[in-house]
């Protein structure tokens, strides 16, 4: 097993005991909750007359089912209003802080934690959402958990887990033009497989990772779960610290930052032993899009769609079904694939730099006549910052719908859904059949810049072929 990694160090420092079933009981440094997966857990506590153990280490927001067109109360959707009301009652009784749309801090749970500074290196972080791995970008151990585990954390501030192996993924070299963090993680998942990370956590390293800003690192860690890994993380460095200095937690308390920094430095992987090491040359990566119905079915924009018989035997039937659903043929490329919807949003790619990058493609262009396009900022803070820079006007002038913060079309739990067999260029993280609200809908995953390019051309387009316009920040 691995030794000396950040994963080992943080795990050991949060371990309470080893349970009779062999799992370790870990203290949880931050518990994030939202309106969809927490109601049942609160109900279980109420049935047993148990109070929330550490409301000060619990933070709530609304994101999954909240509408992005009109968030005024009561919500038009009765189920959404019921979930919102129940969360409000639960957090009020427990004394948990809630970022609802009236606060100016509401947003996707994996966006608000980092931007407020409550996501920090060396913490254990859990949430009832599979993409909790996002927070690993800060050097945290962050895990998605189920409803019974949410109950346990609310009741005890601990969670029971099995320790995993550690795979180091080194992405070397310098990224080429038009290549982003999203292309890195889609490449990793493609090469290692959607089940390649089972039994592992991923440590991302190498020059290409180190040169990314925090937003790019979050995009990569966010999709660790799509590769089967239990979590993913990046060791903290000066890029991490500069981000944290600007957040609510530390901007007005620099002394606390200095007090914590030695701990953050101490948990970095140092003379570590790994269970596996994979190296990928980042300079060879090009813009990546998916051709199928899993995040692992991706190719470079200039590459040909593979023939099912050329894949591993256990992948062939899945590939045939995916190609039939997506209406693609082996030997073709995805360039020129017609789209009906362009979605720029999700916990993977809805932060300010994502919107800036897309705006550079969109500026002085118009959304194609055949496309409906929307931008859904990851949080109210992201939305406000984008509007302060005039990005909203760039998008609206081009023909995009500028929305309120939320998960939106990423999982189609509100009104933002595909209709019929629409094809969507999406900056989200999953392209499963039915993921975006329609069992016949087709989802092509790509970077925000590639979404913008598809929106204005009406088809999957190599973003490197579209000159960028300067957008003043």
Could you describe the 3D structure shown?
The structure is a single chain. The longest helix is centred in the first third of the chain and has 17 residues, at 78-94. The mean pLDDT is 97. This protein has 473 residues and is of the alpha/beta class. The strands form 5 sheets. A 5-stranded parallel β-sheet has the order 5-4-3-6-7, sandwiched between helices. The protein is 33% helix and 16% strand. The N and C termini lie far apart (47 Å). The radius of gyration is 21 Å and the shape is globular. Strand 3 (30-33), helix 2 (39-47) and strand 4 (58-61) form a beta-alpha-beta unit. The protein has 2 domains: 6-266, Aconitase, domain 3 (2-Layer Sandwich), CATH 3.30.499.10; 288-465, Aconitase, domain 3 (2-Layer Sandwich).
Q: Approximately how much beta-strand content do the residues carry?
A: 15-25%
> DSSP helix count?
16
* Whole-number tally of structural domains: 2
N-C termini distance: 47 Å
Q: Round the mean pLDDT to the nearest integer and report it.
A: 97
Radius of gyration: 21 Å
Summarize the SSE layout with pairings.
Blueprint (H helix, E strand, L loop, with lengths): L5 H9 E4 L5 E4 L2 E4 L5 H9 L10 E4 L16 H17 L2 E3 L9 H8 L7 E4 L13 E4 L2 H10 L1 E4 L3 E8 L8 H12 L7 E6 L1 H4 L3 H9 L9 E3 L3 H8 L2 H4 L2 H13 L9 E6 L6 E3 L7 E3 L12 H14 L14 E4 L7 H11 L9 E4 L4 H9 L2 H8 L2 E2 L20 E4 L15 E4 L2 H10 L16
Parallel strand pairs: 3-4, 3-6, 4-5, 6-7, 9-10, 9-12, 10-11, 15-16, 15-18, 16-17, 18-19
Antiparallel strand pairs: 1-2, 2-8, 13-14
Helix pairs in contact: 2-5, 6-8, 13-15, 13-16
């Amino acid at each position: 097993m691995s030794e000396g990694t950040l994963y080992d160090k943080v795990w050991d420092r949060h371990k309470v005991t080893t349970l009779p079933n062999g799992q370790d009981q870990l203290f949880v440094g931050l518990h994030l909750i939202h309106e969809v997966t927490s109601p049942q857990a609160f109900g279980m506590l109420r049935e047993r007359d148990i109070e929330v153990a550490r409301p000060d280490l619990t933070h709530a927001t609304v994101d999954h089912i909240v509408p992005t067109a009109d968030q005024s109360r009561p919500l038009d959707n009765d189920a959404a209003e019921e979930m919102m009301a129940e969360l409000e009652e639960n957090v009020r009784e427990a004394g948990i802080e809630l970022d609802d749309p009236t606060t100016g801090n509401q947003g996707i749970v994996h966006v608000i934690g980092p931007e407020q500074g409550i996501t920090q290196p060396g913490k254990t972080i859990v949430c009832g959402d599979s993409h909790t791995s996002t927070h690993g970008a800060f050097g945290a151990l962050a895990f998605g958990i189920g409803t019974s585990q949410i109950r346990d954390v609310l009741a005890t501030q601990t969670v029971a887990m099995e320790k995993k192996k550690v795979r180091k993924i080194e992405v070397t070299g310098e990224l080429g033009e038009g290549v982003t963090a999203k292309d890195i993680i889609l490449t990793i998942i493609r090469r290692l497989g959607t089940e390649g990370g089972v039994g592992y956590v991923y440590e991302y390293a190498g020059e290409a990772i180190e040169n990314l800003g925090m937003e790019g690192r979050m995009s990569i860690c966010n999709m660790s779960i799509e590769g089967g890994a239990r979590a993913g993380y990046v060791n903290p460095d000066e890029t991490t610290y500069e981000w944290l200095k600007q957040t609510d937690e530390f901007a007005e308390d620099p002394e606390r930052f200095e007090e914590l920094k030695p701990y953050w430095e101490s948990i970095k992987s140092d003379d570590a032993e790994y269970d596996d090491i994979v190296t990928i040359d980042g300079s060879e990566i090009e813009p990546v899009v998916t051709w199928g119905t899993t995040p692992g079915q991706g190719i470079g924009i200039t590459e040909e769609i593979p023939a099912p018989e050329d894949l591993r035997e256990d992948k062939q039937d899945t590939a045939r079904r995916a190609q039939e659903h997506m209406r693609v043929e082996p030997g073709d490329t995805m360039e020129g694939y017609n789209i009906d919807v362009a979605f720029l949003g999700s916990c993977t790619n809805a932060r300010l730099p994502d919107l800036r990058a897309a705006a550079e493609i969109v500026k002085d262009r118009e959304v194609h006549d055949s496309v409906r396009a929307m931008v859904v900022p990851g949080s109210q803070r992201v939305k406000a910052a984008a509007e302060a820079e005039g990005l909203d006007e760039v998008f609206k002038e081009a023909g995009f719908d500028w929305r309120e913060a939320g998960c939106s079309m990423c999982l189609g739990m509100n009104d933002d859904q595909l209709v019929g067999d629409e094809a969507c260029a999406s900056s989200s993280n999953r392209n499963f059949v039915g993921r975006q609200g329609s069992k016949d809908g087709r989802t092509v995953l790509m970077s925000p810049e590639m979404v913008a390019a598809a929106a204005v051309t009406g088809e999957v387009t190599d973003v490197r072929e579209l000159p960028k316009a300067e957008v003043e920040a």
